[in-house]
Amino acid sequence: IxxxxxxxxxxxxxxxxxxxxRDVKIKKDRKVFLYNGQLKSNQSAQFAVLDxxxxxxxxxxxxxxxxxxxxxxxxxxxxxxxxxxxxxxxxKYKCPVAADRKNFEKYLENVFAWCGTASLEKQLRPVxxxxxxxxxxxxxxxxxxxxxxxxxxxxxDSSGKKxxxxxxxxxxxxxxxxxxxxxxxxxxxxxxxTEDNSMIYSPEWTFSPKELRRW
Length: 215
Prior knowledge:
20% of the residues lie in helices and 23% in strands. It is α+β, with helices and mostly antiparallel strands. Strands 1, 2, 5, 6, 7, 8, 9, 10 and 13 form a nine-stranded antiparallel β-sheet that branches. The protein has a two-stranded antiparallel sheet with strand order 3-4. A two-stranded antiparallel sheet has the order 11-12. A hairpin with an 8-residue loop joins strand 8 and strand 9. The longest helix has 15 residues, at 62-76.
């Protein structure tokens, strides 16, 4: 997804989460499908669809997609001992360090069943301002339901202005997709990181910049 004229992507260290996110493939088909193979009713929210598995069960929803992306990154770099998520009571679900792909998927299904926005929000650290946004950060509102989207890219211009891309899954479980910016068609799918504490309007949820979190 090209950055707008005058913007360049932020530097990424080798084997970093930022570098891994940049390597995630995008499907040629821009339609979003549900876990059961049906088309999502709203096909206007997405700019692109990530080539990431959604599974065959109604499990990989919003926070689950965020956890999937983080877990896939750590799995790719054989850092399985670092893959750990907690439920709302604080119980930790750690990935078996010798998990093959089949057992990794089983582990994630268990995580998706017991962990969600409320628990993930507790696990992540607050980011002071939206101006500090980095790839891999998460906009999240814990609740039943809440919602979560991941910042999958950040770019800057010569004046230091930052823009970013957001990706989400939703309910029911569906393909992870990069979101359009409904409030700025000219900049879309990029969002501007403004320091005026204005709300962030994504196609299917509204966030406060104070809801930005980091791993």
